[in-house]
Amino acid sequence: MNRVALGRSIPWTLVVFLIAVWVPALGSRYDTFLGTQIAIDALFVVSLNLLLGTTGLVSFGHAAYFGIGAYACGILMKTYGVPFVIAFPAAALIAAFFALIFGFFCVRLSALYFAMLTLAFAQIVWAICFKWNAVTGGDEGLPNIPYPKLDWISSLPGLGDLSIADEFYLLTILMVALSFAILRQVIRSPFGRMLTTIRDNPERAAFIGLNVRAYELAAFVVAGGFAGLAGALYGIFNRGAFADYVFWSKSAEVLIMTILGGINYFWGPPVGAFALVWLNQEITSYTQYWPFVLGVVLLVLLFGFPGGIVGGLVAGYERLRRMLRPRHA
């Protein structure tokens, strides 16, 4: 019990953040690029896992709020000249607003019907982004989203020689760390415990007086808001917002990351994001048949670690600890 309590008392978000800030100083430009993408995807998958792992809701259209966040932040910054400090939280609010509208209809259904309705709403968002040329740029997207002004980072001691990409990486790490800390508290709060109760047995939760649909809708809105934050960062990182961000394949990708890492652990989905992004980059550099190779690797990982990568590591650690534990009469 002491070891478990010690593990839970360690502020892992702060530890990972303090390690990640050294990437620009110790790594290459490619490492910074890869680290930025992994950090953004990590926030995206943690927002999805609030639905999937915590609440037990399988969403096939979570990319809709990711894309809405990217377009909202991009339009505000590029078209209207709104500073990042306002456009960034506004993107989360706009994404959460659409999640509230879509979720109002989705949570009335359950299981497969819920999943398919989320996909239907996401495809509607994709069609609007793809066709509304006057606002979203249509099939050409919204290119050249400007970087935020980060003079305050370069003014900090020891950070004066950083490039724009390095400064944005540090900003991304900071925003993701703060989002992780908030989501961690949400999951550990009484609200989060109610969500896990609904996940385990929604009928019993309703019997004891919980408004199951209201809690599920609240989780849907929170998850959509944080997905919007991830999309806002990704639009700046990728220097544009495009309709591909809300296509069904993006939702499938983030779902694979979440399951790959392990939905029963807070740090499982970020590990899955790291694994998938890193494998994708490495395999594409060696062969043109990377989709086939990546598919085989994912099959091996999913069958080898039924509880996800983190779940498999935890199970292996517990098995090793039992083997090494001294036997007493």
Q: Please, could you describe this protein's structure?
A:
With 329 residues, the chain is mainly α. It has one domain (2-251): ABC transporter involved in vitamin B12 uptake, BtuC (Orthogonal Bundle). The protein is 75% helix and 1% strand. It has helices spanning 2-9, 12-20, 23-26, 29-55, 63-79, 84-106, 111-131, 133-136, 151-154, 164-188, 190-200, 202-207, 212-237, 248-261, 268-284, 290-304, 308-324; strands at residues 142-143, 240-241.
Would you spell out the secondary-structure blueprint of this structure?
Blueprint (H helix, E strand, L loop, with lengths): L1 H8 L2 H9 L2 H4 L2 H27 L7 H17 L4 H23 L4 H21 L1 H4 L5 E2 L7 H4 L9 H25 L1 H11 L1 H6 L4 H26 L2 E2 L6 H14 L6 H17 L5 H15 L3 H17 L5
Antiparallel strand pairs: 1-2
Compact summary:
The protein has 329 residues and is mainly alpha-helical.
Features:
329 residues, mainly alpha, ABC transporter involved in vitamin B12 uptake, BtuC, two-stranded antiparallel sheet, 17 helices, disordered N terminus
Find the CATH topology. Answer: ABC transporter involved in vitamin B12 uptake, BtuC
| Percent in helix | over 70%
Termini Cα gap: 21 Å
The total count of strands amounts to 2
Q: What structural category do the secondary elements indicate?
A: mainly alpha
Low-confidence stretches: 1-6
